[in-house]
Amino acid sequence: METTSGTLDEALLRLHTSGPEFSGYLSNHGPMAVEAMVRNGQARTVHRWLDAYAHKLEDVPAPQARITDANWQEALGDPSRVTDWTRYFTGQVAERPWRELLAEWWPRLLPGIAGAATHPVIRVGHAVRSLLTEGEDDARIAEFAHALGYWAARHLLLPATVHPTGSATPAEALSALPRIPERGVTPLDGYAQLPATPGWLSTTESLHIPDAPGAAREGLTALVRAATLNYADHGHGNGIMLVHAATAPNAVLRTLPALPRELWASSFAVAWAAASAITTLYAADTPRRAPDASTVTPDEVFARAVAHGNEHAIKFADTALDVAAASEDGDTRALSAALNAVELIDQEA
C-alpha cells in the first residue's frame, strides 16, 4: 500500500503543475488514469505512461480574481476562472474536512454534470475513491480541490430538465433511447439537439428513481452495468465519447459513500440524465458483436488497456472491472465491453 500510494501521490503532484485542459477544450485525464492504474495493480507503469502523456499538457491558466463565499455564483460555469476555482477549493479544504466540503458543494455542482463532457464529475469520482481507499494526505486532498475546481469552472446544465417518474429499469430505459438526428457532433452541439429529439425526454423520464437511499444506490449500480454492457453492443457509434455514459454514473456511484444518504436519490437521477444524453448522442443505431472475453481475466483486460495507452480505454476498463466484479455466474460481457473499447479507440485514435 505504501508503495502504490506513493506512486499515486508523486503522479498527482506532477499533474498539478499543468492545467485541467489543453488544446482549447480537451480534458487532462492524467489524474483519473493514474488513479485507475494504481487501483488496478498497474502502479509500476504510472510514471512511464505519464511521461508519454505529459507532453501534450499545458501550463496552469493565469488567475483572474479571487472567488469568495459571497461571489462564487457569478463565476460558476466560467472556464476562464478555473484557476480561481482551484485556489478557492484549496483554501476551503485547508480549513474544513473534505467530506463536509463535498456535502455542501455536491448539490450545487451536480446539476452541471454535463460540463466538459462529464469529465469533471469523473475526476471528482476518482479523487473521492482515492481518499476513501488510500486515505487522506496532502496530494490526494489537493487533487480533490483541483477536481472540484474544474467542475465548478465547467458547470453546464443540460438544455432540458429531467424528472424521472416512470417504472422502467436502467437497462429498459437505456435500450429504448432514441438517437439525435445529426450525428458526429461535439457534446455541446449534441446537447442542443436533445429537446427536439422525438422520444428523448419521455424515455429519459420513464426511469424509476426510488426514494430509499439503498434502493437508489442499487439503481445507480444497475445503470453503470447497463451503460457498460450497452457499450459492448453500441460503442462503435463513437468509441471515445460513449465511454462516458458508463464512467460518469460510476463516478457518482463511487462518491455516494462520502455523501449524506439524503443526496443519493437525486444523484442517481442526475447521473441517469447524463448517461441518457450521452447515449442518445453517441451510441450506434444497431448492435455489433464485441470481442470475446471468456478466456481472459480482469487483470489481463486492464493490462491490455494500459498497454494500449489511451486514457479513455484505461478509464473505461476500470469501470468495466467494477461491473465484472459485481457480476454473477461468470458473466464476462463487461470485460468484452472493455476489450471493445481498446479496439474501437485504437481505430479512432
Protein described:
With 349 residues, this protein is an all-alpha fold. Helix content is 60%, strand content 1%. It has 17 helices and 2 strands. The chain has helices spanning 2-15, 30-39, 46-53, 72-75, 82-95, 98-109, 119-134, 138-154, 170-176, 187-193, 200-204, 213-234, 244-255, 264-282, 298-308, 311-326, 333-348, and strands at residues 21-22, 26-27. Strands 1-2 form a two-stranded antiparallel sheet. Helix 7 runs antiparallel to helix 8 (138-154) and helix 12 packs antiparallel against helix 13. The radius of gyration is 19 Å and the shape is globular. The model has no long low-confidence stretch (mean pLDDT 96).
Keyword list:
mainly alpha; about 0% strand; globular; about 60% helix; two-stranded antiparallel ribbon
Overall, the morphology is globular
Residue share in helices?
55-70%
Give the biggest beta sheet.
2 strands, antiparallel
Q: What is the terminal-to-terminal distance?
A: 34 Å
Estimate the strand proportion: under 5%
Structural class: mainly alpha
What's the total count of β strands? 2
Order of helices and strands: HEEHHHHHHHHHHHHHHHH
Strand order within the widest beta sheet: 1-2
The Cα radius of gyration reads 19 Å
Mean pLDDT: 96
**Which residues sit in consecutive blocks of at least 5 with pLDDT less than 50?**
none
Helices, by number, come to: 17
